[in-house]
Amino acid sequence: MNDRQLSVKVVNRSKYGLPAKQTPGSSGYDLFADLETPLVLMQLERKLIPTGLYVEIPLGWEAQVRPRSGLAWEAGITVLNTPGTIDADYRGEVKVLLINLGKEPYTIKPGQRIAQLVFCPIVTSVLWETVQECSPTIRGTGGLGHTGE
User: Fold this and answer.
1) How are beta strands 93-100 and 29-32 bridged, if at all?
2) Count of structural domains, the chain
3) CATH number of residue 96's parent domain
4) pLDDT digit string (tens) for 99-136?
C-alpha cells in the first residue's frame, strides 16, 4: 500500500493542537473551535467559528471543510456551505460556517471538534472547447430526481 502525503504549511494561533485524524482510515482532519468562552448556536442560527489556523496549501490542491457526521446526527449541527473550499491562494484564518438545524439551542465549547478538513487534488487548468451541442447520453437532460428513488 502506498501512503499519499501532502506537505501543508500551517500557523496555529489557537491554544489547541493541529487538525488530527481520529483513526488511520479517516479522510478528514478534525478542526477545533478556537473560542474563549462557550458559544450558543440557536435553532436555524448560523455563525462563523474561528479555528486559529492559517494554512498554505500547495497549488493543485484544495482543502474542503466538511461537517462531522456525529455532530450532524446527534445535534443537527452542520457546515452551511458544504463543502467549504479553502483555495491554495487563501492566507486568512480558516473559519467554519456552522448552522444549527436541530430542534434545540446547541452550545459549542472551546476546543470542541466542529468540522473536518479534507485535502483534494484539483484540476488547475481547463481547456474549454465550444461546440454546438453536447453528445447524447441515456440520462439526457434529466435533472434532480431523474434517476428515481
Assistant:
1) unpaired
2) 1
3) 2.70.40.10
4) 999 999 999 999 999 999 999 999 989 999 999 999 99
